[in-house]
Queue: 2 jobs
Job 1
Amino acid sequence: MDSIKKWFRECQAKDMVETLNKKGYNAIYAEDAQSARDLVASIIPHGASVGVGGSVTLSQTGILQDLQSGVYQFIDRYNQPSFEAMCEKYKEAYTADFFVTGTNAVTRQGELVNIDATGNRVGPMAFGPDKVIVVAGTNKIVRDINAGIMRTKEIAPINAKRIKHQTPCTSDGQCHDCTCQKRICNITSIIHNCYKFPGRITVIMVAEELGY
Ligand code: SF4
């Protein structure tokens, strides 16, 4: 059964690569997490400045650890003494050579759908860094934009729990459309295509389930 699931994920990932390439992205197929990790290492030259979006996929694949290894100018948003200092790093990422991130959803028509708390991820994805690399497992593939937004809302409580935000959804796993400052669902972004800057966004479609 597992080999059948694997085959299905391979079909899904390859199909997405074809769709994304037609929409101006530089889409690449990766058989597994290790292949995705190798691809990212082959794309980013040593010494390049690199910002990242918060992503379980990046840590799960080992990509985040590679970016933090010292061979790149890693813009470290993680080890900051305050929220203000972290925001300064978020701003730096807008002028990085590369921005590497996961995504909340990829639609079958080739749109990237994301919801952010601060906009530090969706902003640089849309404009700023010369190159963006998005790594996505097949669990991120959805039918259309509405399904993408629904997916982002469904996983928001998990993400809120992960980053230890005191939001109502972290008590019961349900969205309460909260109004607190810690709310993580503040900015919805849809990248419809990559026609304006062809190839600016590389999407590595991995034939595995990765992240939330
Ligand atoms: S709107 Fe608030 S309660 Fe709903 S998922 Fe987002 S952070 Fe949680």
Note: The mean pLDDT is 97.
Job 2
Amino acid sequence: MTNPFVYGKVARGECFADREREIAELSSDILSGQNVILFSPRRYGKTSLILEVLDRVRAQGVLAVYLDLFKVVSEEDFVAAYAKEIARLCGGGIRAALNRIRSLLPRLIPKVVVKGEGVEVELEFEFDLRGAREPLLDDLFEAVAVLAREREKQAVVVFDEFQEIAGWDEGERVQRQMRAHFQHHAQVAYIFMGSKRHLMQDIFQSKNRPFYRFGKHLPLGKIPEEEFAAFIEARFKSTGFQVEEGAPHRILEITENHPYYTQLLCHVLWDRQRDERLITADHVALGVEEVLSREAHAFHEIWEALPLRARQLLVALAREESPQVEIYSTKFLRRHNLGSASSVQRALERLLSEELLERVDGKYEFTDVFFKRWLRREFT
Ligand SMILES: Nc1ncnc2c1ncn2[C@@H]1O[C@H](COP(=O)(O)OP(=O)(O)O)[C@@H](O)[C@H]1O
Ligand SMILES: [Mg+2]
């Protein structure tokens, strides 16, 4: 029997919990052509959520394109990846798709790639980079809208980890060109997702940037406790486990409802108890110990690489009861003898840039709830 809890890859189907409100909101945005900027810290479940939404709107006839910019490291990559998705949208037989793509993207040379045993055929693209890029990008950025118009359907294009574009789009040339096209597409909703707060803010909230105020902002939070607890219980029970009352809430208390760390802890618990098929609060505590001892080595290395001030700040934060803390409050600074607000500033910047801390609603929290636990255990 396989473990019903997954982490480190997108949660689909049965592995996906709740998010009904967000699914409804995003679906209706897509159907009405509303552009959305979806932000959350890493591993909160953006990708899982949007793929679930895309499955649902596809079933309603919406043309959907999903592009992960994390895997794109240059403009050439971007063009090839986008073109490939457009080819996928064209659908039909390979010959029909080829013809369609030739007229939509006349400057690209499609190449048919046969994968596996010849059952799966994919289109890949080659193009001459010495030629002018603008016309090529013009075609590319119009293609989805053209298809949507042709078929009289709504369409959606998702750019996951959009902030990564800043790495190769020098002078924002590509972004400017994107905006120039996208803003005229009433039938296409564009969704930009990202997990690096300051980069996303720079892109969408700076007046002089091409995507300034391009869509509605939708910050994604954690999964509500009741729904998540019910999900955990149901997943255990579906594999014949008994779950002591209160155990799911104990799990969520430890993981602070963080989607990824919750799945991770549940995964470990399931493996530990696969013979006994029972989860009690005691088992939860043992599972946490297991996670901590697995990670201890990595945590030690992180710790050793940090300057003193940063360490002090981390320990102070780990000691706090609530998950989120207002670092600059006098109360906090005093309680932990941290000195002045300005001296804390640099330590904070370091911890944010290493992604050990994250800013959430103007406060700060640990990216990794188990790192916080480890600090608590070691230093308090
Ligand atoms: N709705 C959900 N239900 C259950 N688990 C989830 C859900 N969303 C996210 N997760 C868990 O969190 C992990 C990270 O999700 P992911 O979608 O990759 O986040 P992001 O794209 O924000 O980094 C998943 O591997 C899964 O373990
Ligand atoms: Mg993601």
Note: Residues 281-304 form the longest helix (24 residues).
